[in-house]
Amino acid sequence: MTVRRSLAVVVLPILIAVGACSPATSSPDPSGSSAAPDQKASAGSGQTIAPEDQTIAPEDQTPGSLDPAPDDGIQTLPPRSLDQTAKITEGITAEVAGIERVTIKPGMPGDIAGPGVRVDVVVKNATGENVPLDAVQVNLYMGADKTPASPSSDSNNKPFPTVVKSGKTATGGFAFLVPNDKPFKGTVEVLFAGDQKVVVFSGPIN
After folding, report:
1. Which of the listed residues 42, 56, 66, 97 has the most CB atoms within 10 Å of its CB?
2. CB neighbours (10 Å) of residue 136?
């Protein structure tokens, strides 16, 4: 009886020591999933996001893009006073033959009645050929700031003939509305569009 009890006392401490040295078994993940399967699922989902394109297009620096608009090619001739003659081209001259105060009456729907002036311009042709005048334009400006006077189509307006024959002169009368009958500084502009020439006549209009 004494021997059996001694064996029991010896065996029990050994079993306790062996149990303490055994590695602990980890508890299973309650979710039933692990990190590795999640990574595989993401890789195989086909939703890979490409890196954002941050390429900046170069600024347009095309040479000449800031160049000014080309000139219209019309040559401005030396200015003249209202009583002078201007040479337009070889054999063609122009002059202001007269400026007369008139009363503008409506010639077409939309025209305005009121005080006005009629500017008579004479073109002389010594070129030896007929010269077309259908592209000649006459404008009137008022004051130092050159405010445009409104052209009128009433009976005082008598445009140039379409052609001035060689050795002949042609006269055109051009009516314009003005604010009142007071004197002002006038600038008469005569544009020969076909020859790309323009000349201005300036002086007081009483």
Report:
1. 97
2. 22
Mean pLDDT on 41-60: 49
Residue 52: pLDDT band with limits 50, 70, 90:
low
Q: What is the three-class DSSP state of 119?
A: strand
Q: Residue ranges of the alpha helices (H) in 22-143? A: 35-43
Instruction: Please report, for the chain, the start and end positions of each structural domain, with discontinuous segments joined by +.
Output: 75-205
CATH of the domain spanning 75-205: 2.60.40.1240
pLDDT of residue 192: 96
State how far the alpha carbon of 193 is from the alpha carbons of 41, 75, 182, in Å.
80, 10, 32
From the centroid of its chain, how far is CA 44? 55
Q: Tens of pLDDT along 75-118?
A: 999 999 999 999 999 999 999 999 999 999 887 887 889 999 99
**Which pLDDT score is estimated for 197?**
96
Residue 158 DSSP symbol: B
Task: State the Cα–Cα distance between residues 171 and 127, nearest whole angstrom.
Answer: 17
